[in-house]
Amino acid sequence: MVCDTHYFRLLFYTFEGELIEERTIGGVNGRGPGEFGFLTDAVQDSKGNIYISEYGDYDRIQKFTPTGDYVYEWGEHGEQPGQFQRPQGLAMDENDHLWVADASNGRIQIFDVSGNEPKFIRTWGKMGTKQGELSYPYEIILDGEGHVFVCEFGNHRIQKFDLNGNSLGVWGSAGKEPGQLHQPWAMCWDSERELHVVDSYNNRIQRFPSSQLNNSNPPVADKK
Predict the structure, then answer these.
(1) What pLDDT score was predicted for residue 220?
(2) In this structure, are residues 170 and 157 in contact, taking their beta carbons and an 8 Å threshold?
(3) Alpha-carbon gap, residue 135 to 146, rounded angstroms
(4) How many structural domains are present in the chain?
(5) DSSP state of 120
(6) For 59-76, what is the mean pLDDT?
(7) Upper half-sphere CA count for residue 26 (Cβ side, 13 Å)
(8) pLDDT at 223 over 60
(9) Is the pLDDT score of 219 beyond 70?
């Protein structure tokens, strides 16, 4: 799944890179069901349902069936629970709880989407530069072992939390050297459980070995 942000649609590809045109969701800029502002991320739950986040005038999340039919939506621009200011990153856990990196609110919101409608669970985090605070969290990923990794666009760093939002460590600082970051945008795991970070304003990808991610010392990156 690829968010084709400025064409207001979600695209699907095979692992060989071939576009599956019939699976495309969206393509129209608007506020109606199945229409989009600027798409930011997409994830699936255990049943294959698809959740797509967007920002702009919309600041919401839409749910679709595995075949791309609209189900429901929630969210609007704001600071209250269930409201968003640029929901930029999504992650789904094994309980079908949707974790949202609510970027411009400097927080993480969590929703139970296992039922017929989303249920707010909790939120944590606040805007700031100290450990445990967040500045424009753009990506969130879970390791399945009780840890949450958050990529902070504004603080030029990656921060590791437990599931309750307690900070377990921080690495990265503004710069161009290996291990430094300049407005990191996104992250993903590879098959070896190594962490790849989109170091956007340095125009590079950095890879952090999985063997170092649980250490107290900052991991050393391989520059790509």
Answers:
(1) 55
(2) yes
(3) 22
(4) 1
(5) E
(6) 97
(7) 32
(8) no
(9) no
Calpha distance 42→19 (Å, rounded)? 17
Measured between alpha carbons, how far is 111 from 140 in angstroms, rounded to an integer?
Answer: 14
Chain centre distance of CA 47: 20
Kindly report the average pLDDT of the chain as a whole number.
93
Residue 134 reports pLDDT greater than 60: yes
Say whether 107 sits in a helix, a strand or coil.
strand
**Using CA atoms, how far apart are residues 23 and 19, in angstroms rounded to an integer?**
9
The boundaries of the domain holding residue 181 are: 125-224
What is the residue whose two structure tokens read 């269930």? 82
CB atoms < 10 A from the CB of 64, how many? 23
Nearest to 184 by CA among 214, 157, 207, 166: 157
| pLDDT bracket for residue 58 (50, 70, 90) | confident
Check whether 214 has a pLDDT greater than 80: no
In single-letter form, the type of residue at position 166 comes to N
User: In the structure, what pLDDT confidence band is assigned to residue 170 with cuts at 50, 70 and 90?
Assistant: very high
Average pLDDT over residues 36-64: 96
HSE at residue 173, side-chain half, CA atoms within 13 A, is: 3
- Output the domain CATH number for residue 146: 2.40.10.500
| 91, 97 Cβ separation under 8 angstroms | no
Q: Is residue 215 part of a domain?
A: yes
Q: Is residue 142 part of a domain?
A: yes
With respect to residue 58, please indicate whether it lies within any of the assigned structural domains.
Answer: no
Whether 211 maps to a domain, the answer reads yes
Distance CA 161, CA 67 (A): 34
